[in-house]
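queue> holo job accepted (phenylalanine)
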Amino acid sequence: MADPAASAQRRLSLHGQWSSRLAFVLAVSGSAVGLGNIWKFPYVAGQNGGGAFVLVYLLCVFAIGLPIMMAEILLGRRGRRNPVTTMGLLGREEGGSRQWRLVGLMGMLCGFLILSFYSVIAGWTLHYTVLAASDSFAGLAADGLGELFSGLVSNPVTLILWHTVFLIITTVVVARGVEEGLERAVRVMVPALILIMLALLAYSISFGGFQAGLEFLFRPDFSALTGAGVLAAMGQAFFSLSVGMGAVMAYGAYLPQEESIIKTSVAVVSADTAIALLAGMVIFPIVFANGLDPAEGPGLVFQTLPLALAKMPAGILVGTAFFILLAFAGLTSAISLMEPVVAWLVEAFSMRRSVAAMLAGGVTWALGLMTVFSFNLLADWQFLRGTLFDNIDYLTSNILLPAGGFLITIFAGWIMCANSSADELDATVGPAYRLWRFLARYVAPVAVLLVFLNAVGALG
Ligand code: PHE
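queue> job finished
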């Protein structure tokens, strides 16, 4: 058998490399930080009773998500191809099977499904940008904002319009390749988003619900936590970190050999988590001060933040900037959802990048109609977890991403020989490497299995 280390060393990515370590950190942060932090985390935490959910979420992020992110980057960099080819290539090289590429294929499917609803929700933020800019929140109380939101989602035409706009932008950027312009944009966007959220936090505190909000978010009430809630917390950790479907693996393929995977992952995971918690700290005080329901659902952010925006000086400006930045954060995540499949079509089928992007965009657009109609025409069609959207969301976040992550850590921890993973993870950080290997071999896969079993009630 060929020495795996030697063959990996010679391999180069077909799409070039990130211009610097910072560029890679920015790209992965751009993927991780998105609607998942600001739109999804607060509403899922709200639906699952707050504190205890948040605690489980944090455990999942650091004990499961972080080692899986490292595994994805190291596999991506070693394979230097799209996730499907990389998994097949490494499978053979490490003495396993080429069929590991099925993990990559499952990730592609999952990416399509996530992007299909992600784009619809990103469309909401575009619509809210226009509302903020035209001062439409002025004078509205909580119930008025509720009507504004239901007015939007009950109209399929508007939803399709914004879904289309967002997907066209995503497709164009992906077609052109993940370029420096994007790196630079992320560098401005993430700090700007944090600044605005800090400003919003100040106003959110002034509503008077700050203590209730913080207690809800940080005081664990384990009686409010169910097996389904634990699974939701794990699913949210995967979703927010972008791990389990190959997005981070695809980006890892463009990472220069000398960069530290461990440091990068820790930085990205910490930033992503901090932003999610910050979003919760802004939103829940508004919820409690205004007598709203924390379990409101997907509309939560859109029905709370405008209350603070309407109150602050220069609210029109701040609000417009906020929703633009949020849409932008969504864009950098959407790009990472589309990149693996486009890289695969280009590498495995010699398709032109622009054609591959259009194909992926078209399929995603059609799939997105399921989400669009879940909020209006098909709102009454409820089965399993709820609407069609609820089911797609559940299937991707709570099942496919954890299953993909499980297989990725099994591969990186058990199939791949220790020399190969140590080589990628930089041998100078000995204890960190051993900790990673322990988490990847035992903690992460066992935890995913236990959470699954617990959710289906098999643990009693
Ligand atoms: N992490 C992104 C967010 O929080 C969503 C995402 C999930 C992106 C999976 C890529 C892969 O918005």
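queue> The longest helix spans residues 315-349.
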